[in-house]
Design goal:
The chain is of the alpha+beta class and 537 residues long. It contains 12 helices and 24 strands. The chain is extended and about 105 Å long. The termini are far apart.
């Protein structure tokens, strides 16, 4: 039984015994009158009580003790947890794990230290957290992985953990980077129809050349190789080699870890031609219109690129008629005897949908109406993919945003409605220009200008420019209202004040030419691309 001042064995042992149905000691259950936490230094008692499954008034048993030890140890805050009883009082004795006071790096030249710190935070190791050797080992492996992505296969990482005051530790990652491994050879085996040089041109990875210091393409990276193999595969498929296959890829490194060699074994097969191509499925009585979109004809070599362009064109055309979820699946019938393929494009327009709402998101300064009036896809109308693409293009052309993303989201509970979300990211649209100069006639010349393309988020632009030269002084104010009318007629107002004193009258300060005036122009849009301007000044 639990005796006063006698502690349960360490948490790991106690948990193991509890898991096998055994107990280190047996105790008579009792009602807990109080709970005391001993050994805390940095962690607040309230945090411990929040994880502790034993509360005042509960019945204390052996199972409760084992459960409490497991729960506290699982928090990661403690190296050791022990539980004892003093009468009807439960005493929890803990030993806190040290806190990480500092993480530093030495020997780092290839990476920015801030970027490495972010990578370590991603695996759970950062300043202020509890020290966990398993996390430190994981962080060390992450550092090595970062160097492997840059081709430093000889890099070595040594971790030093130094205890400091107040139960804290400092962690130092010392790196011996060593030389980076360069790709010395890229070899292809099995290519007969296509030369090795042509295939190498399809790859991003390469052997060292004049620009390798900038592109870093001579450094091996697994993700780059994966992309390069897909480029090679696409090259063959776009030229009719339907049986093409990459049989193996071998990456070897020299003993000194300075040179790498890539060997790619492939099977080309024979090129295939199109014997026939047809559309099937629900063509919505538009077979003639859809057949015109086919980019590949009988007698042509098979091309995955042209086939993809055909399916995309058909999907886009169906999208113009409101079929937002249309699909086109290619079903090839391969004849290996004469190396031909019969293609059937199965068209499934799915259901026709209309747009319930257009939501504008991310416009912290620009008014909703400024974005909404550029939308050619209207609410409560049939979905039209061409109008949606045009809407995105028009919002981009405003010049107020760094990014414009247009997505369609199905409306829950319906099968014929979607919402269109237009997500934008604002960018600065104002500019201030200041200038100064000196000449023998004008002496000091100052100029300044202020312009704002999106005044108060209204979409209206305003600019003021001034020049203080003695012979030619100007003050101009220009305002552009892109939607003077609801139909999109643009109004440009230009007011100016100019003084001009010719050089041969410079001695006569009373002679100068003063011009005060203004221009008023209107731009009338005749199409999405064409606008005709007229006005008077």
């Amino acid at each position: 039984m639990f005796k006063p001042h006698r502690f349960v064995p360490k948490s790991a042992v106690a948990a193991a015994l509890a898991a096998t149905g055994m107990a280190a000691h047996a105790t008579t259950p009792f009602v807990v009158q109080d709970i005391r936490i001993d050994g805390l230094q940095r962690i607040e008692p309230g945090s411990v009580f929040a994880y502790l499954p034993i509360k005042q008034g509960d019945t204390f048993t052996d199972d409760k003790a084992s459960e409490a030890i497991r729960a506290l140890y699982a928090t990661g805050f403690f190296n050791d947890v022990q539980i004892a009883t003093q009468g009807n009082v439960v005493v929890v004795q803990v030993q806190e794990r040290p806190a990480i006071s500092q993480i530093d790096f030495s020997g780092i030249h290839e990476f920015e230290k801030d970027n490495l710190a972010k990578a370590l935070r991603a695996v759970g190791l950062s300043q202020g957290r509890s020290y966990d050797k398993a996390l430190v080992d994981k962080a060390e492996q992450e550092l090595k992985r970062q160097y492997l992505t840059r081709g430093f296969y000889a890099a070595e990482v040594t971790t030093t953990v130094t205890p400091v005051d107040r139960n804290r530790v400092q962690i130092l990652f010392s790196v011996a980077e060593g030389p980076s491994a360069k790709i010395r050879q890229i070899n292809f085996i099995g290519n007969k129809a296509v030369s090795t040089g042509t295939l190498r041109d399809e790859m991003q990875l390469s052997t060292p050349n004049w620009f390798s210091w900038y592109t870093k393409n001579d450094l091996y990276a697994k993700d780059k190789l994966t992309g390069d193999l897909e480029n090679v595969r696409s090259y063959y498929l776009n030229r009719g080699y339907l049986e093409f296959n990459i049989e193996s890829t071998q990456v070897s490194i020299s003993p000194d870890k300075k040179d790498m060699y890539l060997t790619i074994a492939l099977h080309e097969g024979e090129p295939y031609k199109i014997s026939a191509i047809k559309l099937s499925g629900n063509l919505l009585d538009r077979s003639a219109e859809l057949n015109k979109l086919i980019k590949i004809k009988p007698g042509d070599r098979f091309s995955a690129e042209k086939l993809q362009a055909t399916t995309k064109a058909i999907v886009d055309k169906l999208g113009e008629y409101g079929y937002a979820f249309a699909q086109v699946n290619a079903q090839p019938q391969i004849n290996q005897a004469d190396h031909t393929v019969d293609l059937t494009l199965n068209v499934d327009p799915s259901r026709r949908v209309y747009v319930r709402r257009v939501n504008i998101v991310g416009n912290t300064r620009t008014r909703d109406e400024v974005v909404r009036r550029e939308m050619r896809q209207l609410e409560s109308s049939w979905f039209d993919s061409s109008r949606l693409a045009l809407s995105k293009d028009r919002v981009n052309r405003l010049g107020y945003f760094t990014d414009v993303d247009v997505t369609t989201i199905p409306v829950e509970g319906t099968n014929d409605q979607v919402d269109v979300d237009v997500k934008v990211a604002e960018k600065p649209t104002g500019a201030i220009t200041l200038g100064a100069g000196f000449s023998s006639t004008d002496k000091v010349v100052l100029s300044a200008g202020v312009s704002q393309d999106n005044v108060f988020g209204s979409g209206t632009s305003l600019s003021v420019n001034i020049n203080t030269a003695k012979t030619y002084r100007t003050l101009t104010v220009t305002q552009v209202d892109p939607y003077f009318t609801i139909d999109g007629i643009k109004r440009i107002t230009d007011l100016y004040y100019r003084t001009y004193q010719p050089l041969y009258y410079s001695t006569d300060s009373s002679f100068k030419i003063v011009t005060i005036g203004g221009d008023l122009k209107f731009g009338i849009p005749f199409s999405e691309q064409d606008t005709v301007y007229f006005g008077a000044g």
